[in-house]
């Protein structure tokens, strides 16, 4: 009941914000600076063929490839750090340091290295998204209770058994927490990469519309990017509930 009330409150708040935006845009009457939500939706409908056939698939490909690499890289680093303290001391500062460099400053360098191919955008996406997966998953491994490990050891379990039966179940909730952050950041990473150097994609299209002083055209692909982020988040939440139903039954 409380969740339904909270969801209803969120919907009402968003609705009020959209009404306020619509009224403000109509008063200002500067569609390039602040197009109204209605104008954005109309422009999105007008551009649906071009966005759907070329730019949306290009962005989705970047997001999927980037997320796949980030999951493999993030989980792999977390496992390595969990298995060896020496590896943890060597890698953890590097992982932290990777997030102190402004990605928007590195993106043009990746364009110089990889050109306008998909990989310049994928690298940007990976740099943004692997961090929450790696750190959260590693924290999950650390959260495994020593009592459970000691109990299995007394029962003759091997390190492999302990890892599979204690460490992984302990890390899974943390992994999904990191993944929920990563999927939303992946949309930002793909858009940044496309904005700074691409031949197709929603970020590229938004920048192109800006050069044409088409305010509604700038916002139209941003709406799609936002919807992609929300959809990916909901997919991860659904996977989490399905795979961790044992936790929900407690």
Automatic annotation (TrEMBL):
The keyword Amino-acid biosynthesis does not apply. The keyword Membrane applies. It is found in: Cell membrane. It is a multi-pass membrane protein. It comes from the Bacteria. Keywords: Cell membrane, Membrane, Transmembrane, Transmembrane helix, Transport. This is ABC transporter permease subunit. It comes from Salinibacillus xinjiangensis.
